[in-house]
């Protein structure tokens, strides 16, 4: 497969660019359970017998998985290059402190996913003065949950936009790892600063996100795929090693808004979520 075609697929596949914007707003009607059920049935049909590897996202509290495709876990992220950072509104994964279902959403990945299961005080929920990371699907608000993906590649690359930043001419099939942290947005200047959380520098020859939280529990490790609502009914062909931290951290919503105004990844809004993958045949076993 030539690089041009691979990059085309990659740009579509990573959830940073997985679905085009439309005219739906955050107040759009929620689809019925039958719509999600049909999407899951179509995913099962389109992947059956085709040799797709394990998929993501999943309930990381569950160890069940019968997908036979195996691949080696990617190295520690400290031995790989950070290539992309993006985030989703609501967690794509379920587990730990993010198990509250946000609902079916619009059927295209927005207003669905999972929310922080804990409680916030009134001050933390104070509305912001400015719209935070606005998009055609609505802006973020205090109390919202986001899942941040720190994407790493074994290729010799530098941080940039989309999955294309994780590939180069020398290695068309690099190992990929996603370090995952779920945050809840609070209007509190004492909360974590998102600019600091996404800061990167070169350490021991690798581009590194130097402030990924290290106090949010032991990460659940599993083999899966790229995500995003573009894969609700088809399988992702990319193999990804996942590390999902179970505890939620609080981040200052205003610093998230500042980051959306300009960053090397050209991210300016929250992305939609892929339906939780529940079919054991599409999941790897977690040891």
What tags apply to this protein structure?
287 residues, 6-stranded mixed beta sheet, two-stranded antiparallel sheet, globular, disordered N terminus
Mean pLDDT rating: 92
Quaternary status of these chains?
single chain
Number of DSSP E strands: 10
Determine Rg (CA atoms, Å).
Answer: 18 Å
Shape: globular
Pick out the low-confidence regions: 1-26
Give the helix proportion (percent range): 10-25%
- Portion of residues in beta strands equals 15-25%
Summing up helix and strand content along with how strands pair, one would put the structural category as alpha+beta
- The topology string of helices and strands comes to HHEEEEEHEEEEEH
What is the first-to-last residue Cα distance?
Answer: 33 Å
How many distinct helices?
4
Please outline the major beta sheet.
Answer: 6 strands, mixed
Please give a structural write-up:
It is a single chain. By secondary structure, this protein is of the alpha+beta class. Helix content is 13%, strand content 19%. It contains 4 helices and 10 strands. It has helices at residues 3-13, 33-47, 194-197, 253-260, and strands spanning 81-89, 100-101, 114-115, 145-153, 176-186, 200-203, 206-209, 220-224, 240-244, 249-252. Strands 1, 4, 5, 8, 9 and 10 form a 6-stranded mixed β-sheet that branches. The chain has a two-stranded antiparallel sheet with strand order 2-3. A two-stranded antiparallel sheet has the order 6-7. A hairpin with a 2-residue loop joins strand 6 (200-203) and strand 7 (206-209).
């Amino acid at each position: 497969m030539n690089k041009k075609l691979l990059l085309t697929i990659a740009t579509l596949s990573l959830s940073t660019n997985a679905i085009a914007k439309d005219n739906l707003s955050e107040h759009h009607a929620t689809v019925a359970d039958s719509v999600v059920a049909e999407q899951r049935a179509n995913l099962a049909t389109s992947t059956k017998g085709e040799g797709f590897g394990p998929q993501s996202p999943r309930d990381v509290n569950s160890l069940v998985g019968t997908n036979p495709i195996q691949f080696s876990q990617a190295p520690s992220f400290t031995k790989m290059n950070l290539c992309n950072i993006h985030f989703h509104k609501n967690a794509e994964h379920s587990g730990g402190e993010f198990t509250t279902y946000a609902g079916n959403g619009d059927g295209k990945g927005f207003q669905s996913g999972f929310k922080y299961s804990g409680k916030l005080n009134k001050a933390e929920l104070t509305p912001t003065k400015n719209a935070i990371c606005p998009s055609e699907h609505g802006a973020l608000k205090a109390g919202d949950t986001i899942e941040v993906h720190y994407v790493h590649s074994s290729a010799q690359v530098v941080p940039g936009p989309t999955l294309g930043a994780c590939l180069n001419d020398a290695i068309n099939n690099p190992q990929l790892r996603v370090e995952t942290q779920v945050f809840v947005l609070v209007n509190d200047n004492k909360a974590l600063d998102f600019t600091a959380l996404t800061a990167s520098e070169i350490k021991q020859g690798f581009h590194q996100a130097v402030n990924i939280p290290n106090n949010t529990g032991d990460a659940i490790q599993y083999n899966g795929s790229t995500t995003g609502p573009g894969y609700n009914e088809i399988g992702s062909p990319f193999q990804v090693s996942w590390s999902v931290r179970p505890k939620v951290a609080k981040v200052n919503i205003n610093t998230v808004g500042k980051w959306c105004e300009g960053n090397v990844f050209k991210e300016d809004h929250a992305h939609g979520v892929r339906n939780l993958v529940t079919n054991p045949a599409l999941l790897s076993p977690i040891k």
